[in-house]
Write a structure and sequence with these properties.
It is built from 14 helices and 50 strands. It has 911 residues and is of the alpha+beta class. The strands form 15 sheets. Strands 1, 4, 7, 10, 12 and 50 form a 6-stranded antiparallel sheet that branches. Strands 5, 6, 8, 9 and 11 form a 5-stranded antiparallel sheet that branches. A hairpin with a 2-residue loop joins β21 and β22. α3 packs parallel to α4. The radius of gyration is 48 Å and the shape is elongated. One of its GO terms (cellular component) is plasma membrane.
Length: 911
């Protein structure tokens, strides 16, 4: 240190532990107007943006100094000066900026320096240093008796760490106490990004809000923050798999880091088999194939293979061969034609029974049944997995003629022609034609026989519709008649050119399409009715089962006329009884003023007056007044009270009770660190009590946040802001999606507008955090997208500084992902009451201290900064409690009414 003016280096003296130390001292307490400066050497900043200065010193109590007048001081001043110059010999006093005036916690009175054991004071101050390469510190004495024992200067970093398999480097904290430094992590070796890894370095050297992360590559698994190769006999196929797995049966891996295990010889894996599946084999042959011939059909049946190869995807296919014995006795087999029918199919069969029909009569066939599974192809398996049968079909009559054509139609005749049946099943010996007048049905018909595939039909009546059927005969007998074909004779003696039309078929087709359309329309209408019905049912099922004894909030928008709602729930106030005094802020619809209200027969009270600015639309008027219609339904000490409304003259006004301390967030920021924990819990209790009342009335607030809580002069907190505009955003298509207060809102309400009392409980947890951190912004300066992502990944706000563990646990309970798991407001209220009754439970705080990096040390040894708990409640009495919430003036009144203990006070009702 540089020595200036009256500061002198001392001889060795003893510290608390009796260790000899040297100090810089000054003690000009008898002379007035002291101004003694002691300056450090230049201290390099080394990238730090905020440095901490820990000063250890002793200070002499002025009263203990004999003969000292008013000149003696008990403080000194700490200054800094930023500079790029590491050897400034002279710096003007005015170049230094004051950090703080430092006072001692303990001063000493003893005079006997010889044996004295000093009591050291340790004070820490932090300074933002961002403009130069380094800085100087200076200590200004203004007339105290001080010995500076050590000065330690350090800055904080978030230490190198690995989170979610991403490495985050040692990071210097930001310049401001609330700034977060966003750091991108890099994936550790043998890992890949799952989602961009990110974390924030907080001002106190702690990492916050890990988002995203990496996954070990295939063949590697996580072990203590690194990716290690799977060992022999193990594998990992996908990076998203949780870890290495043992090779499945009949497979092995011979090297570290396998992504898949190879099959043992004779075992196979199908392309679609997952790597986790055992290697398998093709099936053995089907068993016990039997055939039953019925004329030109065959039923084939078999039993499944003896060995399925470890799989369950056995299927069968059929091969059909027509076999002929040549003149030389040789056997020639050819594939059956495509006209053979297989039911249910020829390939990909899952059943063990097939009916083969449309075979040729009296023909030799060979059927081969193959068994397959997923690895048949990979294994190259062939005939080994099949079984065959050879058979001969029976004699069979020909199949029906499928098409008849009429030509040369005259008044009395026509010519018919047809095709040979698809399956003649032998040599056709003859065709038989049967026909009759359509009107006669089959009561009388005529038969004609022919060897050819045509016939001239004569002797018909003119302009008459005839029905014709044709059938064929072989040695096995007649086949079935064809379907009916209708043709009409005409009025002309000469044939008309044209083909016959199966008119019945046409008629059926047209009417069929019509009927189909009718049916579809009916089905559509019925299904619409059904879905509407089920929706109504669902709606009614979702309706609350309301308890008849409990007062329920009425949505003012259920009134057709909004003025009816407002006059049902709010009192009209004569504008002449309102005296506006000053503007206190801006609301959503216009100015908010404070003033006085004098209603006849009542004493004058302070009120807040919200007014609706001129030029409003109908909708704005309705939304503005809806808040009063809602507020007017409530009557609770922790809900802002509506005094009345002015609707009969302009501007429209809403008059509420006046809350002297304004909104809670601003109030807490203004009084940072000034309340005891019990006072904070008292505020939270009030809010919980108001919210319990609202939830009992089935009212969901949707925007519970410290900014919407008002505080009066007695520190009583009241829930406010019942604006309806946000409630109208239920429609997921609404344009207002951006108006959801993301940081305060439960995930299900953000994702799909599920606003319930449970989502209000989530917001209450955030309010708890705001209160305990004295109005800090939840999730600091993170953006909304990151907040949503972090929530999804399970991140929750950490405990604020000095937050009792029980309170943080209660916050975490409010932030349960499953809304059914969150506590109710009634449970929260009980919990807070218990804490207030047993303040000892509030003493335990998280207490992890941040890491500190030394920059340059002065003299003496290092001492860690200790944090003194804000409340120490050795005893808990009614008197202490009233004192802590600033209501001690009511002590006597309460005592006179018989309320002498906290328990009796807790039993006190609103009435
Ligand atoms: O934080 P504040 O002072 O508290 O600023 C806002 C402003 O009006 C706009 O809402 C204040 N305010 C609203 N209602 C009341 C009230 N009943 N009593 C006192 N201040 C109020 C609020």
């Amino acid at each position: 240190m540089n020595r200036c003016s009256q500061w002198t280096p001392s001889q060795f003296i003893m510290d608390e532990k009796n260790v000899p130390i040297r100090t810089y001292q000054v003690c000009n307490v008898l002379e007035p107007n002291q101004n003694n400066w002691l300056r450090t050497d230049w201290i390099p900043r080394s990238g730090a943006q905020r440095v901490y200065v820990e000063v250890k010193f002793t200070l002499r109590d002025c009263n203990s100094l004999p003969g000292v007048t008013g000149t003696c001081k008990e403080t000194f001043n700490l200054y800094y000066h930023e500079s790029n110059e590491d050897r400034e010999s002279y710096i003007k006093e005015s170049s230094f900026i004051k950090v703080d005036t430092v006072a001692a916690d303990e001063s000493f009175t003893q005079v006997d320096v010889g044996d004295r054991i000093m009591k050291l004071n340790t004070e820490v101050r932090d300074v933002k240093v961002t403009t130069r390469k380094g800085f100087y510190l200076a200590f200004q004495d203004v007339g105290a008796c001080i010995a500076l024992v050590s000065v330690r200067v350090f800055y904080k970093t978030c230490p190198l760490t690995i989170r979610n398999l991403a490495t985050f480097p040692d990071t210097v904290t930001g310049a401001d106490t609330s700034s977060l430094v966003e750091v991108r992590g890099s994936c550790v070796n043998q890992s890949e990004e799952r989602e961009e890894p990110k974390m924030y370095c907080g001002a106190d050297g702690e990492w916050l809000v890990p988002i995203g992360g990496c996954l070990c590559n295939p063949g590697y698994q996580e072990k203590s923050g690194t990716c290690k190769a799977c060992s022999v006999g193990f594998y990992k196929a996908k990076s998203s798999d949780p870890g290495c797995s043992k090779c499945p049966p009949h497979s092995h891996s011979v090297r570290d880091g396998a992504t898949v295990c190879d099959c043992h010889s004779g075992f196979f894996r199908a392309d679609s088999d997952p790597p986790s599946m055992a290697c398998t084999q093709p099936p053995s042959a089907p068993q016990q194939l039997i055939s039953v011939v019925n004329e030109t059909s065959v039923v084939l049946e078999w039993a499944p293979p003896r060995r399925l190869g470890g799989r369950s995807d056995t299927s069968y296919s059929l091969e059909c061969l027509i076999c002929q014995t040549g003149s030389s006795g040789s056997h020639l087999c050819l594939p059956c034609g495509s006209d053979v029918l297989f039911s249910p199919g020829q390939t990909g069969l899952k059943t063990t029974r097939v009916v083969v029909s449309e075979l040729r009569a009296h023909t030799h066939y060979t059927f081969i049944v193959h068994a397959h599974n997923g690895v048949s192809q990979a294994s190259g398996a062939g005939a080994a997995q099949s079984v065959s049968v050879t058979l001969t079909t029976n004699q069979a009559a020909p199949s029906p003629v499928s098409f008849i054509q009429a030509t040369d139609v005259t008044r009395h005749s026509l010519s018919l022609a047809w095709q040979q049946p698809d399956r003649p099943n032998g040599v056709i010996l003859e065709y038989e034609v049967k026909f009759y007048e359509k009107d006669q049905r089959e009561r009388s018909y005529r038969i004609m026989r022919t060897f050819s595939r045509s016939v001239d039909v004569t002797g018909l009546n003119p302009l008459t519709v005839y029905v014709f059927h044709v059938r064929a005969r072989t040695a096995a007998g007649y086949g079935e008649f064809s379907a009916p074909f209708e043709f009409s004779t005409n009025s002309d003696p000469f044939p008309l050119i044209g083909e016959g039309v199966n008119s019945a078929f046409l008629l059926l087709s047209i009417s069929g399409v019509g009927i189909l359309l009718l049916i579809s329309a009916a089905v559509f209408i019925i299904s619409r009715r059904r879905s509407k019905y089920s929706k109504t049912k669902q709606d009614s099922e979702e309706e609350k089962h309301l308890n008849p004894g409990v007062k329920i909030y009425v949505d003012p928008f259920t009134y057709e006329d909004p003025d009816q709602a407002i006059h049902e729930f709010a009192k009209e106030i004569d504008v002449s009884s309102i005296h506006i005094e000053r503007v206190i802020g801006m609301g959503e619809f216009g100015e908010v003023c404070s003033g006085r209200l004098r209603v006849q027969g009542k004493r004058e009270i302070y009120v807040a007056i919200k007014s609706l600015k001129a030029g409003y639309s109908d909708k704005q008027r309705r939304d503005f007044l809806s808040e009063a219609s809602i507020m007017g339904q409530f009557d609770h000490p922790n809900i802002i009270r509506l005094e009345g409304v002015v609707t009969r003259c302009k501007p429209l006004m809403i008059i509420t009770e006046y809350m002297e301390n304004g909104s809670l967030d601003a109030f807490l920021r203004k009084h940072d660190g000034q309340f005891t924990v019990i006072q904070l819990v008292g505020m939270l209790r009030g809010i919980a009590s108001g919210m319990k009342y609202l939830s009992d009335m089935s009212y969901v607030h949707r925007d519970l946040a410290a900014r919407n809580i008002l505080v009066n002069s007695n520190l009583v907190c009241k829930v406010s802001d019942f604006g309806l505009s946000r409630v109208l955003e239920d429609d997921p298509e609404a344009a207002y999606t951006t108006r959801i207060p993301i940081r305060w809102t439960a995930p299900e309400a953000i994702a799909y507008r599920k606003f319930t009392t449970a989502s209000d409980v989530w917001s209450y947890g955030i309010v708890m955090w705001e209160v305990v951190s004295y109005g800090e912004r939840p999730y600091w300066d993170m953006n909304n997208q990151d907040v949503i992502k972090a929530m999804e990944e399970g991140y929750r706000l950490p405990a604020p500084m000095d937050c009792p563990v029980v309170l943080h646990q209660l916050m975490l309970d409010c932030w349960e992902r499953e809304r059914a798991e969150r506590p109710t407001f009634s449970q929260i209220l009980n919990m807070l009451d218990k804490l207030i009754r047993n303040p000892g439970t509030l003493r335990r705080t998280g207490g992890d201290r941040p890491t500190a990096t030394m920059l340059e040390s002065g003299v003496g040894s290092e001492v860690c900064v200790s944090v003194v708990p804000q409340v120490c409640m050795p005893e808990w009495s009614m008197c202490v409690w009233l004192q802590s919430i600033g209501l001690e003036r009511y002590r006597d009144t309460l005592a006179a009414a018989g309320y002498t203990s906290l328990d009796s006070l807790l039993a006190l009702t609103h009435q």
